Give the backbone structure.
Amino acid sequence: MSRVQGLIARLRAVLRPSDAEGRMEEEFSFHLEMEQARLVREGLPPEIARRQAQLTFGGLDAHRETMRDERGARWLDDLGADLRYALRAMRRSPGYALAVALTLGVGIGVNGIVVGYVNALLFRPIPARAPEQLVALFQRDTRTGRIGEIGYEDYLDYRERSGAFAGLAGMSGVPLNVAIPGASGSLAGDMVWGEMVTENYFTVLGMAPAAGRFFQGADAHQGANPFVVVSYDCWRRRFQADRNIVGRVVRLNGTEFTITGVAPRGFRGLRMFGFWPEMWVPIGMHAVIEPGSAGKLEGRGGGDLMVFGRMKPGADRAKTRAAAEVFARQLAGSYPATNADLTAMLVPAGVGFDHPAYVKPSVLVLSSALGLFGSLVILAIICANLANLQLARAAARARETAIRLSLGCSRARLIRQLLVESSVLALPGCAIALALLQANRVTERYLVPKLQFEVGLATSTDARVLLFTVVVAVLAVGLFGLVPALRASRVNVVPLAASAETAWWSGGRPTRLRRSLVVTQLALSVVLLVGGMLFVRSLVAARAMDLGFDARDRALVSFNVGLQGYDERRGQAFYDAVLARVRALPGIAAAGLARPVPFDSYGQTTAWYIGDLANSRDGTARINTSVTSDGFIAALGLRLADGRDFTPGDSANAPLVMIVGRSVATRLWPGRIPLGQQVRYAGAEGPQVTVVGVVDDAKFAVIGDAPGGHLYLPVRQHYRDWQTLVVHTRGDPAAMLLRLEGVLASLDPALPAFGKTTLEEAVANGLSTSRTAATIAGFFGVLALLIASVGLYALVAGAVAERTREIGVRLALGCTPVGVLRLMMGEGARLGVIGLGIGLVGAFGVARAMGGLLYGLSPSDPVTFVLVPLTLGVVVLFATYVPARRAVRLDPVAALRSE
Amino acid sequence: MPRSAKPDALRGSIDLLILTALSLGSAHGWGIGLRIQELSRGRLDANQGSLYPALQRLEHRGDIESEWQSTENNRQARYYTITRQGRRALGEEVDRWKRFAAAISLVLEHGS
């Protein structure tokens, strides 16, 4: 009980120090009064009694201090003093404080972002129950090594008979035309990616729905289960987070489905690098979702079902794989025609599943490790620089330190003060880092290209990332605060008190290390800045580049009539109707259909049999192909060099025709007139197609594309159910989009229009890779430059502090300020020149290597190679001049007296 | 006048002395000093100011507690009281001190 009271007394004393102080003073004065009174009673005169009482009591201050120490108040007092001192120091040199805050902030922030990505890639588990028990099941062909997905019948056997898994589910991606009755705007109808899943999909994952329920066992029955589960994001975005969503009806590919539930928040399907499915429907509904996909619920020896399962309790991966392999051999025995060479292959879940042939986990781990390593190196360099900076300041204050030490200030006390100082400097840095982390979502949106469906890495600053960042920050503060603190306090008191500038902190080795560090940083920043600059200039050049078509005033809208259940006859009729209506709109210069259009997310090639083709073993060539309507060439602004465009007469019954790009013509028929040339479609026995037109080459995929060539087929002869409407307007193309949608809706209100954009936007999107590269290179270049500048600054500042006395002597002997400046800047400038030189050599090499990625720009672009070194030169001069200026301002007398 | 013991010699035993003084009844700081002086028949002069840090320490430890009370001549003073834990600590401390003193005396007897 009394122990508790004691604790309360102590707490009260710490929490309310003024209380404790007051009581202490009162107690002291009471004591003195009593003692004085006693002495007076013994016969002393009051004045003498008073002095006598004070004498026996002892030094008041000493007693106060002991009591404060005892209750821990002293510690707080000192901390406050340290803080005030640190803040004062910061105010005195705001430039220094800013440099520290920026470098540290950016360093830690970059680390956090990289860790965020790595976390998303490697460590954030699927929001499923015990995700470490989940494995994907693939089949590997032991003869060819090909890894494939699984046929439905094999899947059922694995699930029911193998006994290898506690549960096994399957999924298959599918495009969905979604129409939401009652919803308004462009969200009403849209094409989204969804998945057809086995009814136990969510059960195997062990998830709880955010609303409603998931599928049930009865949903395994084929055809009778028009149910759909929507993702959390979909529920929020398309249904405005409707609380009564369960039971609502949506049309998917023309058929009504009832919403039974909402998937948990944050669940974006199981594909790591694939699309994020918005909806899940039972695979038994495949006949209406994907008409014509008859084989969905049958098939062995491979298929398109992505299968994953939960391992049995107590089983590990080796055991499960062994069981699955045994069962694969059984299947091979039972069905030798299809399964003879197939064996089972397991892929651990990680943060999701991907086809192992597309993504090698080791590559992922390696690139993540490299990213982490890189960012840690950056942080380490930053810390080293900051530590140097602090050292330089500590050197400048060596005399003060020495005096404090000799006056009896404890080493711990001194270390603490230096630590407080660096923490105060680090705090704004940490704040900047946290702000940067918040920008992480923005960077992702910027870095991941916009496609016609939603993809991404879903990085986020979760607790793990925050924890890591905090740990890194603490380590950074420790590194750049503690190391100089320890060194400073190890100072030999006697000689330093006598001379303030013994070279105690500049041993030969660390200095050399620091010099090479600065040179490395500078060289690195040259390389990165040159790279970034080249990318930026190439982007500018790309915008001015001839695309072969005209991107201005073009509007694009896509639709997929196949998903609405149209057959070819209805589809062709729909295309005719769309074109007729659109062309009748006012302000339309031309309209046509095509797939793919330039800078589409999808591409497509066809094989052509030419016969006497050079450089081809079987006489065929694979050429990028668009299937188009008549009028497309005019709508896109392609230049017809020879021959004619398609006409409505190029129908299924008419002779097969094609239009080729110029480079296709030169490649296939060098030196001959392409018009009238004939090739065969799909092999030597295929139907014959005649060239009726030649157009100028156009860029379809990448702006930097060497013209590989493109050819065009009429959609009337080669039906495709997925088309993009291209319109050349005389007005604002973005405004035209709404009217185009209106036309489509008037023809089929249930048909979703998607991929609405202007051609200029689509082209800009196609440049996103270079834009990303330019951003990253530029960002890291500026970062490296910043770090290098701080390094140079620290170096010169250190030299100035170290040579204070020498400078004093020089000034006293009549050396001019300019001379001193030159002396102090010489070292920094020399390092700067070396760093620039090395960097330029490296930059030339790197620029040559990335020459293929540059558009309309020589890798040794003179503007870049003049501008970058010039800018860097200025920065180097500035970084050396600012600290060196201090030397000039030294008062020679004071500098000499510092001895 | 008998020589007072040096304050330094008191440092280790000041807690013991305070607890002993308080075991006779509550007292304020000055009273405790006085009581120690009286109990030692004037031989120990508990260096008066250094009494207070020790009092604070003992209170934080929970061996004593304090309360503001009025003195006879109506003056506010802080009165210290020994707690049950303090009495226990005192008992242990006295035992230890006696064993120590006995050991020292033994050594001194054989040495002289």
Remarks:
- The longest helix of chain B spans residues 84-111.
- Residues 51 and 100 of chain B are 24 Å apart (CA to CA).
